[in-house]
Amino acid sequence: MPRPDRSHERIPAILGAAAKIFARDGVQGAKLDDVAAEAGLSKAAIYLYFKNKDALVFALLEQFFDANLSALKMIPEGNSTADRLCDWLAIVGEAMEGGAHFQSVGFEFLALAGRDDKARKMVLGFYEQYAATIAEMLKTDGVPNSTEKAREIVALLEGLNLLWMVHNGELEFIKTAQSGVRALLG
């Protein structure tokens, strides 16, 4: 009799455990034994779903990017792009504040992208999708140079994200980001 497919339960548990262990120990210092223990699984069970630690890192990176992009796309239409982006920033900012210890993991992923071609392509693909989604919103609102403006917004937000982290969460990310977006969109 075949075993029931429990991947819908186990994969999120493994990714959540990995995020916690990576935040605590860093990606390089993290051990799959610790991820397994945090997830309440054996190390062998981790290998059923992820070939190695790198595969786990990439799955976590993809989950992070997909969640951010999905949240942006779910903001209802009807308001101006500036209002929609500010609504999205409130959601993202609250998530950042609730999971502040995970921010360092995001920056480890960016550092990995500087050394690993696969990670670089994944990060670049996310930024391109992120900017294209914002550009489409801006274009719909009739904002000139929508592609350039979208890149400026992405640069502003990523820079603020870095400042928020180095200020140990003390920077008012939501307020500053919303103000910056409104200034860029005039």
The CATH level-2 architecture of the largest domain is identified as Orthogonal Bundle
Coarse shape: elongated
Instruction: Describe the largest sheet.
Output: none
Q: Name the helicity range.
A: over 70%
CATH homologous superfamily label of the largest domain: Tetracycline Repressor, domain 2
Task: Show unreliable segments.
Answer: none
Number of strands: 0
Multimerization status: single chain
Please tell me the total number of domains.
2
Cα radius of gyration in angstroms: 18 Å
CATH topology of the largest domain: Tetracycline Repressor, domain 2
Into which percentage range does the β-strand content fall?
under 5%
User: How far apart are the first and last residues' alpha carbons, in Å?
Assistant: 64 Å
CATH class of the largest domain: Mainly Alpha
From the helix content, strand content and strand pairing, which structural class follows? mainly alpha
SS field, number of helical segments: 9
Order of helices and strands: HHHHHHHHH
Mean pLDDT: 87
